[in-house]
């Protein structure tokens, strides 16, 4: 049986380098320490709503746990004791398609699975998400979760950002694998962008499927051959017609 309480003590580890924790806690808790992963003094931290005393998020888009004590009431054959857990910067996961950062939060007996880090930043520094709003990344880079880059906005705001950043070298395609660089971007007539690398891969997949079917389905293969032949004759017919026209106009063919 384990129970957890937030650490409210002043005996911070000697190696603690950033225990100032500006603007994160009311005064009576300001002596809580963060032992590892020093952060620049300019980095601002706020408690994550629902996980106060356990987890914090910064205006640079980082998430950290706080020092805490766990009461281990049943140790194997020994006496109950308090166990110290040091706070640290938590690893974040990158969504394979969206390219955004997410993380599973736990603390104080609560769990919030797969929370989007950009949501955490805004919830802690701005306030809860207004209904109907979504999180807008001003520069369209899904893993740039600095507070200055984020705001709650409407779907239209988000689309406006995308339009304003059209061709941005930093934005990534849907798969998250490629950047929308100048060379890798196909601009569609409706204003949308298509990733050239993904496009190439998708077409290769379709072509491979067609090849397989031609091998295994003789009727389909025959149909394909007929179409190819027709296309060839139609092309050569067009070329011959153009030659005829040129000759009739008195120019060399
Ligand atoms: Zn792509």
What about the largest sheet?
3 strands, antiparallel
Bound small molecules, which ones? Answer: zinc ion
Shape: elongated
Cα end-to-end separation = 93 Å
CATH architecture of the largest domain: Alpha-Beta Complex
Total number of helical segments? Answer: 4
Q: By helix and strand content, what is the structural category?
A: alpha+beta
Portion in strands? 15-25%
Strand order of the largest sheet: 1-5-6
CATH topology of the largest domain: Homing Intron 3 (I-Ppo) Encoded Endonuclease, Chain A
Indicate how many domains the architecture comprises.
Answer: 3
| Average of the residue pLDDT scores | 78
What value does the Rg take, in angstroms? Answer: 30 Å
Which segments are poorly predicted (pLDDT under 50) over 5 or more consecutive residues?
Answer: 1-38
Any descriptors?
alpha+beta; 28% helix; 3-stranded antiparallel sheet; disordered N terminus; Homing Intron 3 (I-Ppo) Encoded Endonuclease, Chain A; 253 residues; binds zinc ion
Description:
Mean pLDDT is 78; it is low at 1-38. With 253 residues, this protein is an alpha+beta fold. The radius of gyration is 30 Å and the shape is elongated. It has a 3-stranded antiparallel β-sheet with strand order 1-5-6, with no helix packed on it. It folds into 3 domains: 2-126, Alpha-Beta Complex (Homing Intron 3 (I-Ppo) Encoded Endonuclease, Chain A); 169-216, no CATH class; 217-253. It is 28% helix and 22% strand. The chain is built from 4 helices and 13 strands. The protein binds zinc ion (ZN). Residues 173, 175, 177-178, 195, 197-198 line the site of zinc ion.
């Amino acid at each position: 049986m384990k129970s957890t309480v937030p650490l409210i003590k002043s005996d911070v580890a000697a190696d603690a380098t950033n225990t100032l924790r500006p603007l994160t806690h009311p005064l009576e808790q300001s002596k809580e320490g963060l032992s590892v992963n020093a952060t620049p003094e300019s980095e601002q931290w706020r408690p994550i709503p629902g996980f106060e005393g356990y987890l914090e998020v910064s205006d640079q888009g980082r998430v950290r746990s706080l020092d805490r004590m766990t009461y281990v009431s049943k140790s194997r054959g020994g006496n109950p004791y308090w166990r110290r857990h040091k706070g640290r910067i938590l690893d974040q996961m990158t969504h394979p398609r969206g390219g955004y950062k997410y993380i599973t939060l736990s603390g104080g007996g609560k769990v919030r699975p797969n929370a989007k880090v950009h949501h955490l930043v805004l919830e802690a520094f701005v306030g809860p998400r207004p209904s109907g709003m979504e999180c807008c990344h001003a520069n369209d880079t899904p893993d740039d979760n600095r507070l200055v880059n984020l705001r709650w906005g409407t779907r239209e705001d988000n689309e406006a950002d995308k339009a304003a950043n059209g061709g941005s070298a930093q934005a990534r395609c849907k798969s998250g694998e490629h950047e929308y660089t100048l060379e890798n971007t196909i601009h569609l007539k409706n204003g949308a962008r298509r990733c050239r690398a993904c496009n190439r891969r998708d077409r290769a997949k379709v072509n491979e499927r067609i090849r397989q079917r031609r091998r295994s389905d003789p009727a389909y293969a025959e149909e394909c051959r007929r179409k190819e032949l027709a296309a060839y004759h139609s092309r050569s017919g067009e070329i011959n017609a153009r030659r005829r026209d040129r000759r009739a106009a008195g120019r060399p063919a």
